[in-house]
Amino acid sequence: MQNRRDNNSDGERDLDLNEDDGQPWYAGGLQFQCTGCGDCCTGAPGYVWVNKEEIRSLAERVELTVEQFMQVYVRRVGVRYSLKEYANGDCIFFDNKRRNCKVYQDRPRQCRTWPFWDSNIRTPEAWEHTCKICPGSGTGKLYSLEVIEEQRQQIRI
Predict the structure, then answer these.
(1) pLDDT for 82 beyond 70
(2) Distance of alpha carbon 24 from its chain centroid, rounded?
């Protein structure tokens, strides 16, 4: 089986595709089972992108107005919004003592779709790297191509 890599109109590399059937390399599915380690919520500084709907939902969750929530929990990055972080890079909603998310039920789509981000599944090598940094990736429940694609298409990271 040979793989090919296409470039999209933006010059970004697309997913590895099987030349025989044009399916993504992970057409047989991928395994993932969250271990609750919190590693995806902590560590190096980064971004947790949020849209207006997610901001509204999170504001309700913490019982603030959208304006109050934006002042306390959100930073503007260019034209986008990201949740703030603590100085050590941990997400502002990560409870370090309990090692869990304080707003788990209303967590942003970026968090809901981990690890099936475009950047994590673009190539088998990218997935291998994801499995090295996330103990739940590559183990547990087998997710179908359809579910992976639905998750991948929610947000491009």
Answers:
(1) yes
(2) 19
